[in-house]
Every structure is written in C-alpha cells, then in structure tokens.
Amino acid sequence: MAAAAATVPSPATSFPSTTRKATVLSLRVSRRFKVAASAAASPGPDPSPAFKSVTAFAPATVANLGPGFDFLGCAVADASLSLGDTVTATLDPSLPPGTVAIAGITSPSRPHLADRLSRDPLRNCAGIAAAAALQALGVRSHAVSLRLAKGLPLGSGLGSSAASAAAAAKAVDALFGSLLYRDDLVLAGLESEKAVSGFHADNIAPAILGGFVLVRSYEPFHLMPLPCPPALRLHFVLVTPDFEAPTSKMRAALPKHVAIKHHVRNSSQAAALVAAVLQGDAGVIGSAMSSDGIVEPTRAPLIPGMVAVKAAALEAGALGCTISGAGPTAVAVIEGAEKGEEIARRMVDAFLSVGKLKATATIAQLDRAGARVISTSSLE
Amino acid sequence: MAAAAATVPSPATSFPSTTRKATVLSLRVSRRFKVAASAAASPGPDPSPAFKSVTAFAPATVANLGPGFDFLGCAVADASLSLGDTVTATLDPSLPPGTVAIAGITSPSRPHLADRLSRDPLRNCAGIAAAAALQALGVRSHAVSLRLAKGLPLGSGLGSSAASAAAAAKAVDALFGSLLYRDDLVLAGLESEKAVSGFHADNIAPAILGGFVLVRSYEPFHLMPLPCPPALRLHFVLVTPDFEAPTSKMRAALPKHVAIKHHVRNSSQAAALVAAVLQGDAGVIGSAMSSDGIVEPTRAPLIPGMVAVKAAALEAGALGCTISGAGPTAVAVIEGAEKGEEIARRMVDAFLSVGKLKATATIAQLDRAGARVISTSSLE
Asked: GHMP kinase C-terminal domain spans which residues (chains A, B) (predicted)?
C-alpha cells in the first residue's frame, strides 16, 4: 500500500484539511450532507474500524426507464456479478489519517479501460465517494486505500460511475461497522456523480438500494424505494454497441421545453410504470418503459441503429425497450429469461445491419440487493 | 312518465336510428367503444331487464390532485351521501324502444340548480351516459326514463357532471342485470364528459370505480385503479367558495409549454403520489398533492384567496392542499377526521378575509366503492 499512497499524498480529500481546494470540497460536501442524520455535520465520535479490509460489489443500473427521465432507475445484475464494479477498501496506516488513496485499478475484461481512469482520488468516482463516506462517518484517525475492479464499460449508459461510487461508499461504511443510513450512502455517492457525470441520483440510488428507486426530490432529499412482488421475474436484455455517447452530448440533445400534452402523457406513463412496479405487472412495466415521447425521440436518432433495435426487440417479443440512461445501451424488458437470447440476437443484428455497429448483449435480472459486501478481512 | 317522455321524443339517442344526427352520435360512440368487450360493436342479444327500476349513487371526485393533472383522480363521499348525485333509471314502455328520457331533476339543497340543467337527454350528462350505456348493452326493445337528484353544485371542481353520468350509467347497467365491464361504464360516462366538460376521464373513472384511479392512456383505453391499504384513513376537507370558475377559462390559463426541469419535477411528484397511494403513506400523498409547479401556479391566482387558503390549510396541519379539478374548490388532505373542522374553519376564513368570498366546507372520506346501486324495484 505504501507505494500507492506515496503517489497520492492528496490531502485534498482529507478531513479536516488546511488546503484551499480541500476546504472548498469540504464545504460542498457539508452542504449536501445537511439532510443526513449521520456524523457529517458535527464532529461526533471517531468510529473504530470493524475490519482490516472490506470488498463490496455494486450493480449496473438502468436510469430513466423511458418516461422516468431523471427520476427513476433500477439495478440489474447477472448471476456471475460481472455486471457491476467491485471495490476493496483497506485500512492503510501509511496514509495521513482521514485520507483516501487509490491503490490500484483493474479491468479484467477490458485491459485498456483501467488506464483511462484517474488514480487521483479527487478525480476518481470511487475515491470521491469513499472520501465522502469517510467524512459522513466522521473518521479522523484512519485512512483508506482502495482497489477498484471495473466490471462495467465506461460511458455505456449502465451507470458505470455510479457502480464504482456505490461499491466504494458501501465498502468504506462496512469497514467502520456500517454506521451510515441508506440515504447517507446515496449522498456520498451523489458527491461523486456530481463531480463526474452530473447531479442526478437515478443511477446511484438504485446502485446502493437495489431494485427500482424513485428519486422524488433533492431539497429535501427524498428517495422512494419501489419494492416489486417477489414473484415478478423481471429480466433485462442489455445491448451495448461499440459507440461513444457522452452524457454531455446526450444532455445537449434534450428539448428545453415540452408541450403540456406531452408532459401529461409522459407523466401518466411514468406514474403507470411506478404503479406497475409496485403491483408486479411486467406487461405494463414494459409498455410504459417503451412510451417516452419526450427524451427518447431526441436521443434515439443520435445512436446509429437504435430505432431499428427497439423495433427488433419488440417484434421478437420484448415487453418494452428504450435507451438505458443516456445510452448507447439499449434495454429491453422481458418476464423470465426464456426469450432473452433470441431477443438479444435480434437486437445485436439490428445494431449491425442498420447502425453498422458491433454490439454485445447481456441478459440480466433485476438486482434487488444493491451494493453489498462480498468479503471481509478481520482485524489482527 | 308519459308526460316527460312526450316532451322528449328524441330519436337522437335511440339505437338503431335513422336520423342523421343520431347516426353521427352513434358512430362516435361506436369508435369509443371499440375497445370494450361488450355488446356495443355488434348486435348481440337484446338483454332483458332485471328490475323495473334502479337507483344508483355516484360520488364526488377530486381530479388532478396537483401534479396528476389530467390523469389522476379520486372519489370522495361523506357519510350521508350528500356529496354525490343519484339517478333512478326506470323502464318506460311509453317511450320508443332504445331511447332515454329525462323524467325529472331535483336538487334538494340548491332549489334553483335543477332549473339550470337541460331536460334534453342529448344535452344532459345523465341522459348522454344512459344512452351510451344502453347502446353498450345492446338494448333495442326497451326504453328508460331517468330521475336525477343533484347533490353536487355545478362548476365547483368536484366532478358534478361525472357524478351524474356515473350514476346514470350504473343505474342503466344494473337495470339490465349489470352486464357491462367496468371500462364500458367509464366509456359510457366519458361520452357524457366529452360533450359537457371535455374529453378527460379523471373524474368519471374514479366516479365509477371509486378510490384513486390513474388514467394511463386513451388509445388504447387503459385505467389503472390504485388500491390503497385499508388502514389508510384518508380524509379530505373540501372548501367551495361562492365563485364561478368555468373549466374553459381555467383550461385557457394553462401554459402551452413547460420547461423540461418543471416537467421532470412534476412527473416525479406525480409518480411519488401514485407510490404513496399504493403504499398508504398519507404524508407523501399530501405533500405530493401540494407540489404542483405547473398548473396550480397559473390557476390559483384566478380564484380569489386560493393562495391564502392553501397556506391556512397547511398551517392548520393539513398534509397537503391544492385546487380540486379546475376549481374553485380547495381540497386539503388529512389522515383521520380529527383536525378536519379546525382546518375547514381556517380555510373558510381565508376565503372570506383574503378572497372576499363566502365558502362552504365539507369533510369527506376517500370513497372506495364508486358508483353503486342503492335501491331497486322488482319487475311485477
């Protein structure tokens, strides 16, 4: 750990700190944490570590879900947990107390991806979320180094940054005995999202909580988990083309205003989607997801083949299909996994034949657990 | 009955008919009924009466509920059933088969109101809905006369026209053995709403079904009842000022376009409202109802005192407050009836002191039953 820590002396994420940059970050973090019931606001007890090391996994997430633009999302995972990111948080006595360092980044299935991610904890999703979690916990006497294993591609619309942030916040919290409330963890992750991909919680909230989550409001901060009946066997066909669709460009494509009748139509479909999730109606979940008349029509043309991919998915029997997050991943929803492979094949074919893009498909389930600890190392 | 029927020979609502006007109405009705599983589309069996006479009640309704503008509504009723309309449908052999006549209109608590309503069944909410129900049933050999008892004021934002239509459709259906599906009844009532107050189902759907109803879409026609847990003791303080707020004027006040951020905010609050109804969270129901940032801000200033009335309701402990339908009634929501009288008094005071309007208050409960038969007379 010493070598990694040496390359990242970064008092910038420490708490307390005397550098100007750190003060600014600290103030910003404090403002966000004013609604949290944790130790962030005032210097409470300095918590003791519960483990030497904790490894946490956080799943991929599908934000927007069509008419739920900017306020709905759900977590998805495959059986092998390859669809998500893993972070190991380890106590590191070689670092200045209260700080975070990035000790290593790996990306087993995409060798070059790890090189694209910053080792500066202030510029790394996991680092920022870990620092915010440390601050929320009120940790002043210990420091943490992180090892990040990226399972998700970047900029694919599957909540890659949120998965790193969620796993980091969860691992750090567990390292100190899991003292934070659910909302504190989401707010820690939101600090990271804000810095990296924009101030919206529709990825980070389901990445932490699992299942479907409604981000009702930010002031006050109010998340509503939307539990769906256990019998609902919701699956997602996720097809990611080899195409970069930066969130900023996709955001710029959004209409500034919408006609009142489109507002009413999209709102009623979003409300129907929420009701269908709570009532376990896969058919309505699918058709509501497919119904966005505001955002999808402006973004789909920017992703070559997307319109044809959606048509192919529906024709092959998907209950619904839309763009995952800001894209370019297309997400189709099905009940049960039976039709998954055929639908995936048709969607991949459509990306290739119409969009001239290679694409890879994964069949995932709704992930009801969200960020979770997958292993721990005891204190000596 | 003969006298009333003589004044309304009206083949215009008959089925089948040879007049041009009737053909137009019939075609329009048929189009609406194409999704109904009833006898409307093809001439099925001509149903036999089950009773000589049926009396049905339908409750008042609160449409919009803040951010649910044009797609959410709920039914409300007080213990004495004064907050709704009652229709008696009677077989009338003196009328041409397949027709409807208005035999009488009373308004016990508002003597002059009955005079303002048309006796022409084509221009009367109850008449139009009854004719549409007869057609949906496929009744060709019998005719029906209606007696309407108005419990609701007109143009108050409490779904007065929908209550008449719902009670009429329900009474006619029951007269012939309750053959129609729930959606057929709503579509019959929607014919009436379309003619009288606009093509929207957010009053007629809850007036028929009871409880909270989400009007998801019209093509295809899809209603989603939103059952709330039995333990939820939702009450409504309804305060109606002595002020005319015609739906057309209130509609004209609507913005044509909304900013995307307002769209997102309102949609997320509407979705939260739906989730809270299904989960039985009165606090979130109230605060979500109070949160409309699109329609209420444009309409409230047109109702003298409304802004102060809302503030008074919230200050007195209401969980939320908004305009009921297109107004001018203000609706506050509370859990349990305990605070109802105090909140009602404060709201009435605010209408008087700020709006210079006299107002009357009613404390109602969520009406979970919707339109129902309250008495029948057997066939001889």
From this structure: 274-349
